[in-house]
Amino acid sequence: MAKILVTGGLGFIGSHTVVELVNAGYEPVIVDDLSNSQLAILDQLNTIIGHKPAFYQLDLTLETDVQTLALAEPEIEGIIHFAAFKAVGESVDLPLKYYRNNFYSLINLLNAYYSKPVNFVFSSSCTVYGQPEKLPVTEDAPVQPAQSPYGNTKQICEEILQDMIASGGSKYKVISLRYFNPVGAHESALIGELPIGVPQNLVPFITQSAIGKRGPITVFGSDYNTPDGSAIRDYIHVVDLAKAHVAALKLAAKESFTGYDMFNLGTGKGSSVLEVINAFEQSTGVKLDYKIGPRRAGDVEQVWGDVTKSAEKLGWKTELGIDVMMSSAWKWEKYIAQNPLN
């Protein structure tokens, strides 16, 4: 049973990926500093998969701690690197926080396992495309100037990985997965998105507003060049996204795969903010209170991905639609309202 190190493994995407790794016969080892997650998720995972995965609480920006981890877990065959700060708006206000965390954690991790044959899956983002010139955006599209420090960290981290592979000095094989907008929750409603503080993303703000935890939803911008004036994104169910990481590990493990590649992870279809709000109301029967506000710094107007390459080379495509994304997110919100994880 191959051991897979999952950094940020108690976070939103990380926890769902741990479940899918176990389902696929892997042994996940979780690392998390709990800066944007909760230890209680470990118990939730135990309920879903029937055991508690190995867990290390540590800060990946501390080089000596990461080296100690590598000594404690020398049999790691794959790494899925989620651990990063990810709020676009916060990165505009606190760029140095983002550059320090997102760069140091990646470099320390790469150094720690540099001499070993490890399949490395990097949690990247569609933000590397900036505002694309053409839609849907393909993996061959030119990388545009980043719209935020967060987006810039993802661009530069991909460059770091490509430069490392090009140097020929490591035994890594690397796949970067460029996510669009992950939403939803596991069908058990035992894990889901759990933002600390005010949510920076649309769907958790929607569910928190619907349950009375937040005030009205603000739609940031109604004057974009889109059919209804609100920004468009490609929303993807988190379980579909988690399964793509398993597919990436399997591809990287093949002898025919060498070096570096990248893939778009999305549905291939864009939905506007107002369409998402409507989908939530339709799938849950809950009416939302929202207002129109000004555009938000760092946001692009519209982006959705061409996912042909993922279907053909990864052998992966999404299965769950926008209605399941909204209903599962709402089921999770109601669960944590009745079962606080503190």
Descriptive tags:
342 residues; Rossmann fold; two-stranded parallel sheet; 11 helices; NAD; UDP-glucose 4-epimerase activity; NAD(P)-bd_dom_sf
Fold and architecture overview:
The chain is α/β, with parallel strands linked by helices and 342 residues long. The protein has a domain at 3-183 and 236-266: NAD(P)-binding Rossmann-like Domain (Rossmann fold, 3-Layer(aba) Sandwich). 39% of the residues lie in helices and 17% in strands. It contains 11 helices and 13 strands. It has helices spanning 12-23, 40-49, 63-72, 88-93, 95-112, 149-167, 202-210, 238-252, 273-284, 308-314, 322-338; strands spanning 3-7, 27-32, 54-57, 76-81, 119-125, 173-179, 181-183, 217-220, 232-233, 235-237, 260-265, 271-272, 290-293. It has a 7-stranded parallel sheet with strand order 3-2-1-4-5-6-11, with helices on both faces. Strands 7-10 form a two-stranded parallel sheet. It has a two-stranded parallel sheet with strand order 8-13. Helix 1 (12-23) packs across helix 8 (238-252), helix 7 crosses helix 11 (322-338) and helix 9 packs across helix 11 (322-338). The protein is globular and about 55 Å long. Keywords: Carbohydrate metabolism, Isomerase, NAD. Its EC number is 5.1.3.2.
